[in-house]
């Protein structure tokens, strides 16, 4: 195909020359041209090769072949192999969905039997998508698409699709965290009740495993409704362990000079950036008001404070520390869970107000702490921004420009990058003051 002969150069971090915007644009343009070529050659279904669906290797493991132009373009041979692999993985995923459709259709006419069939179908679809995508942030659009396809094939009126799916999965699952069996079951019951009018009995309880240990009546009433096995995402490096090593190695005392407030203008850069969010802007700005109050009161940064802000961000009654492993960047980064993690995170937060460390270093470090400890089931980037805001505002510093900081990805694997973030915060403070 035409794009195959011109694979662009891979992304490389060059601390001297800085970020190469032209090269980055060339990589994404090439990816778009490849999509056009695949669709022209194989049909519109091929556009889904970018959906970041994992596929099986020869030994049965799951691997994600394509995770975007920046991360997946390497040598020409490897890059084209990754494109071909991603296309095949997407095709096999479509065939898996087709098999599920065939297994459950036509749906029974009796409402009670149909309710069970709808539950089984939706649960299988959601679990299949979550497993094949590593439950990363990209799984929501694919899950929505799969459910819409089934509703269409089952001849549910199209004008109802968005409402049904939003009620089933909208806000029910957390991005980057594998869904629990109980959550999958709740979504399935929601769809079944909406379409058949049959609701589960009030004493119906579900285990937190999927698909094992389901109540027997659910697994025997429809013998043909075999549950899709839960497939674990492929093993990836422990990004949290890497960050904790980098945190110890970084020279925080010397990364930036001491700075103090007051330093602010009529603009609030963090608030302006958060206000531009497409969803949940009002909630995160309400949480920012709480941060301002806490910063004025002083005191240490604690998880209790972080949780109170996150409750407002997510509109939930509680926002406890996660109890499962989490993933990011299409499954390329993994943040395992262990029992000592909440205590270790609390200790890191306490260091955010240590006056021995320059303010820019403390703000940068706590920002990275929240990102890489990944304490919450959702909204960790927003929580990191709020933590950084608190540390700075506590010492009367409010950045008038924050988008360059909050929109840039800061990797966990390089002490120099961590120190560079501290210097960047110092620069933003200087610009605000000056």
Automatic annotation (TrEMBL):
One Pfam family, short name: Fic
Residues in Fido domain copies: 301-430
InterPro entries associated with the record: Fido, Fido-like_dom_sf
Gene3D superfamilies on file: Fido-like domain
Name of the molecule in the record: Fic family protein
């Amino acid at each position: 195909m035409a794009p195959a002969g011109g694979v662009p150069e891979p992304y490389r971090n060059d601390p001297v020359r800085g970020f190469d915007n032209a090269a980055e644009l060339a990589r994404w343009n090439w990816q778009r041209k490849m999509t056009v070529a695949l669709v022209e050659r194989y049909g519109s279904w091929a556009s889904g090769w970018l959906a970041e669906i994992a596929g099986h290797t020869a030994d049965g493991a799951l691997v994600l072949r394509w995770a975007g132009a920046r991360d997946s373009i390497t040598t020409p041979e490897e890059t084209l192999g990754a494109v071909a692999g991603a296309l095949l993985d997407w095709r096999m995923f479509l065939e898996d969905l087709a098999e599920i459709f065939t297994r459950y259709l036509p749906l029974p006419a009796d409402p009670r039997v149909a309710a069970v069939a709808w539950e089984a179908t939706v649960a299988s679809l959601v679990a299949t998508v979550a497993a094949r995508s590593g439950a990363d942030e990209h799984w929501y659009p694919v899950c929505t698409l799969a459910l819409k396809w089934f509703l269409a094939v089952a001849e549910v009126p199209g004008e109802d699709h968005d409402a049904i799916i939003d009620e089933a999965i909208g806000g029910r699952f957390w991005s980057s965290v594998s869904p629990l069996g109980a959550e999958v079951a709740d979504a399935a019951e929601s769809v079944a009740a909406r379409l058949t009018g049959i609701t589960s009995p009030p004493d119906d309880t579900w285990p937190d495993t999927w698909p094992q240990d389901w109540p027997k009546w659910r697994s025997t009433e429809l013998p043909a409704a075999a549950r899709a096995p839960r497939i674990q995402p492929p093993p990836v490096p422990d990004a949290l362990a890497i960050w904790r090593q980098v945190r110890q190695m970084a020279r925080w005392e010397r990364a930036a000079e001491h700075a103090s407030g007051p330093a602010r203008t009529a603009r609030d850069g963090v608030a302006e950036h958060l206000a531009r969010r497409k969803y949940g802007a009002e909630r995160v700005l309400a949480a920012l008001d709480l941060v301002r109050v806490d910063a004025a009161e002083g005191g240490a940064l604690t998880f209790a404070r972080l949780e109170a802000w996150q409750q407002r961000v997510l509109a939930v009654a509680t926002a406890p520390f996660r109890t499962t492993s989490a993933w990011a960047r299409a499954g390329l980064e993994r943040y395992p869970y262990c029992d000592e993690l909440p205590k270790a995170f609390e200790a890191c937060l306490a260091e955010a107000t240590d006056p021995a460390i320059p303010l820019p270093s403390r703000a940068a470090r706590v920002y990275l702490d929240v990102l890489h400890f990944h304490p919450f089931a959702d909204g960790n980037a927003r929580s990191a921004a709020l933590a950084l805001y608190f540390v700075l505002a506590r010492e009367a510093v409010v950045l008038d420009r924050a988008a360059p900081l909050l929109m840039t990805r800061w990797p966990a694997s390089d002490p120099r990058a961590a120190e560079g973030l501290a210097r960047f915060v110092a620069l933003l403070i200087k610009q605000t003051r000056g």
